[in-house]
Design a protein that fits this description.
globular, about 0% strand
Length: about 350
């Protein structure tokens, strides 16, 4: 047993929740962002501006999402070059097969399948890397064959399972928009701020529609909320880095004083049901849910909502983009998170739960 542990340590195979649930998952979301999400944005811009070149570039970027996710995961797992490059094939296969269900229908498990399968094939590739004199053949063969075989065996089932979970959440949100609006908004907003990837979670289960709108509300409540709440400590730099970057920057302060999270959490509990019950605010971005978990990071959440509107109009689901749609976006994504978090923050500062300096970013 000690020999196996020493071998795995030498190969940098670290079996831990942090390595797979935080490092790999976060990297996967970045790969997804740099391919499918950027591709969707370029495609939308191209169609709106009548620039066919942008549409074509967007299609190329979107088509590489599986490969981009797998390579990003391999990078997070510190895979050597031959393993890293081989993961492009693994990711493509896992994403393609995970996007189908066991009965041949359309599945939502592409990103989730890539996560599981790329992790396993990357670790197997790392184990055999440089262990033979024909490493140039052995390492790519082990990485690609293990990944593609696992994709063929597992990915459709993962796609079916992910679709079922996503469909259940979306169904429950339509059935109980108030309570599910609160639940989805709070949970996804918390996931956004934790050192895990809310975008990857939303993409893995295909969180769109009304539930996707609640997720957007929760993410914006955390990002815009923390940006405004900590303005007195961090000024304009903090406003931009958190409002357009990530509320994850506050994790160190949250560990020191968890109460500083309450204003953003309470805000998400308010804006979630407002989004689902009052405005029927939906996220139908063609990227399949990744934008639902991005909030105002690079304005991806609002852009995703807009691309969803455009797509719905094009497919006849929506008649037109109305002024009320824009009012809902401004309120849910920007105004309410800023005002409500600031008000809640004043209360918690007054009772001493949040003190001067608690939100200062280093």
């Amino acid at each position: 047993m000690e020999g196996i542990k020493a071998f795995l340590k030498r190969k940098d195979v670290v079996i831990s929740a942090r390595r797979y649930g935080i490092d790999a998952l976060g990297a996967m979301a970045q790969g997804l962002f740099c391919s499918l999400l950027i591709g969707t944005i370029l495609d939308t811009l191209g169609k709106q501006l009548g620039v066919d070149f942008l549409v074509q570039v967007g299609a190329y970027a979107s088509a590489m999402s599986g490969a981009a996710m797998a390579v990003a995961i391999g990078y997070a797992l510190k895979a050597p070059p031959l393993v890293l490059f081989s993961l492009a094939t693994v990711g493509y296969a896992a994403n393609a097969l995970g996007s189908t269900t066991l009965d041949g229908g359309k599945g939502a498990g592409g990103p989730l399948a890539v996560l599981f399968i790329a992790v396993i094939s990357a670790e197997l590739g790392k184990i055999v890397s440089k262990e033979t004199k024909i490493d140039l053949l052995v390492t790519p063969l082990v990485t690609i064959l293990s990944g593609v075989i696992l994709a063929a065996l597992w990915a459709p089932a993962i796609g079916t399972a992910a679709s079922s979970v996503g469909d259940f959440i979306k169904w429950a949100t339509v059935l109980q928009p108030f309570w599910m609006g609160i639940l989805v908004s709070v949970v996804i907003g918390v996931a956004l701020t934790l050192p895990i990837s809310s975008a990857a979670i939303c993409a893995a289960i295909g969180l769109t529609g009304l539930a996707g709108g609640a997720a957007v509300a929760g993410c914006c409540a955390n990002m815009v909320g923390f940006a405004v709440l900590s303005f007195r400590e961090n000024k304009w730099g903090g406003l931009v880095s958190q409002g357009l970057g990530t509320s994850m920057l506050q994790m160190g302060n949250i560990v020191k004083n968890p109460r500083i999270w309450l204003p953003a959490i309470l805000t998400s509990a308010v804006t979630g049901p407002i989004a689902t019950c009052l405005f029927h605010f939906e996220m139908n971005d063609p990227s399949g849910g990744v934008a639902s978990g991005m909030g105002t990071c690079g304005m991806v959440g609002p852009i995703g909502v807009y691309t969803g509107w455009v797509n719905d109009v094009a497919t006849g689901v929506k008649a037109a983009i109305t002024p009320m749609d824009w009012v809902a976006m401004v309120l849910i994504c920007f105004l309410l998170p800023a005002v409500l978090t600031w008000i809640f923050g004043l209360f918690f500062r007054r009772i001493g739960w949040i003190k001067e300096g608690d939100l200062t970013l280093n």
